[in-house]
Design brief:
457 residues; alpha/beta; Rossmann fold; Alpha-Beta Plaits; six-stranded parallel sheet; 22 strands
């Protein structure tokens, strides 16, 4: 596949790395010579200095032969224009654009991105994606990773095992025997920065990060069994009133009787948020100011979420909040290098918007009947939600005869509204929703399993 990526920022480089690693022909465009030089040196891609919205630049990048254009520059207008030109002049089949300004995304302007106006196939809104990720993690605070699939019926959950976990040093086969009615499948284990597909004889150790796929109804019980259950917060403080902070507050308001405080430094923005929200108390001030945090009731807060546009402020605000009595903290961190720092200083969870955006883009890049994708551990593996077709090699045979690649593990199957945990005897039917884990080297195999073949028509 030939792909043009406009923008050599964190997201652009991340998606270029992923696509080039899989053998695609990738060209990255950016106006910064330094960024393009770094991309060309580090990745097996072609770098081009220029403006992605200029016809000449796109033509030089190979737009006439391109299968896809992904526009993720820092300018919404450049991203939209690049997609328009890619469509009108070069007939590029698939166009993806990152659009941050919420004015473009107002539902009353929903026709804007139609084929007859701005022909963009997929709009990525990082603020909304990140806000949803924060909401999901807040709903299950005992987990460090949460992603819902199959219209919310199936969840994938990441948990770090502590020394009080009752299933430590127990083979996974035995765990399944101890809890036969528990609808979960442990699909991956990460230990000492190494991830592998889980096997029945694997024994879990303290500090392991495990990923399991489960019926939504069984997630809380599974966390209790793993010693990772935690009550959902009823008192929340949000530091930062940008789009993300405001979206999170709006989402929390819909949950009901939750006490929400939001701290915003800019007085005009604070006034705007106070007028826009219904039940959130907005405080104007610095999220690093202990007196402001105390006024917000930090000593009674169960969760503090720091989502300003400054990583250092988010980390420090989280640390200060915990020292002032908050039970848990969550920080938005754009720079991947700060992730380890956040964990070292006691921040309970951090959100990487780059990883969230890349997962969303991958969902639309993957071939076949793929409905959802979530990247694990910077691309070491992927969780995939797909629909089985009649022509799939998975269909109409027991899974033990399906010859799945070593790095692929099916976690759950949704059939006629019922979530089923797979066994060797499970037979996948056409139309089943299948949620699985695939290691990086087996992602292409998964695409082939769910690809529409000519016999389907």
């Amino acid at each position: 596949m030939r792909v043009i990526v406009c923008g050599a920022g964190r997201v652009g480089v991340g998606i270029a790395r992923r696509l080039s690693r899989e053998g695609n022909e990738v060209t990255v465009i950016d106006q910064s010579k330094d960024l393009i030089r770094k991309v060309a040196e580090r990745l097996d891609v072609r770098g081009l200095v220029g403006n992605g919205s200029y016809p000449q630049t796109l033509e030089e990048a190979g737009a006439r032969e391109a299968d896809m254009l992904i526009a993720v520059t820092y300018s919404d207008e450049v991203n939209m224009t690049a997609c328009q030109i890619a469509h009108s002049l070069f007939n590029v089949p698939t166009k993806i654009a990152r659009v941050r300004a919420q004015g473009y995304l107002d539902p009353k302007y929903s026709d804007l991105f139609s084929r007859n106006h701005l022909p963009i196939d997929v709009i990525i809104s990082p603020e909304r994606e990140v806000s949803e990720a924060i909401m999901q993690r807040m709903s299950t605070p005992g987990a460090f990773e949460i992603k819902s699939f199959a219209d919310g019926r199936i969840w994938a959950v990441g948990v770090q095992l502590k020394d009080d976990c009752p299933i430590i040093n127990t083979p996974l086969r035995q765990v399944a025997e101890l809890f036969p009615d528990l609808k979960i499948t442990i699909v991956a284990i990460q230990r000492n920065q190494k991830m592998w597909r889980a096997h029945s004889e694997d024994q879990l150790e303290i500090g392991d990060e495990i990923y399991f796929i489960a019926d939504r109804q069984d997630v809380q019980r599974a966390l209790e069994i793993m010693g990772a259950a935690a009550r959902q917060a009823r008192r929340v403080i949000i530091v930062g009133g940008g789009n993300i902070g405001m979206f999170v507050a709006q989402g929390l308001e819909k949950l009901g009787s939750m006490k929400i405080r939001l701290v915003e430094r800019d007085i005009k923005r604070a006034e705007f948020i106070a007028e826009s929200l219904e039940r959130t108390i907005v405080l104007q001030g610095d999220g690093l100011d202990r007196s402001i945090l105390r006024e917000a009731g930090v000593d009674e807060a169960e969760t503090v979420v720091a989502v300003t546009d400054n990583d250092q402020v988010n980390i420090l605000a989280s640390v200060v909040a915990k020292r002032e009595g908050a039970q848990r903290s969550m920080a938005l961190i754009n720079d991947q290098d700060y992730g380890a720092v956040a964990q070292a200083v006691g921040i309970d969870r951090y959100i990487d918007p780059r990883a969230t955006t890349i997962s969303t883009i991958l969902q639309h890049i993957r071939r076949g009947r793929i409905k959802g994708v979530f990247s694990l551990s910077d691309g070491a593996a992927e969780l995939v939600d797909a629909i089985a077709l009649e022509t799939s090699p998975l269909v109409n045979k027991p899974l033990r005869e399906a010859k799945l690649p070593e790095g692929v593990m099916i976690g759950a199957v949704l059939r006629d509204g019922d979530v089923q945990m797979p066994t060797g005897d499970t037979v996948i039917n056409a139309g089943d929703r299948v949620v699985l884990m695939a290691m990086r080297e087996n992602v292409k195999d998964v695409e082939q399993m769910f690809r529409v073949s000519i016999e389907y028509f």
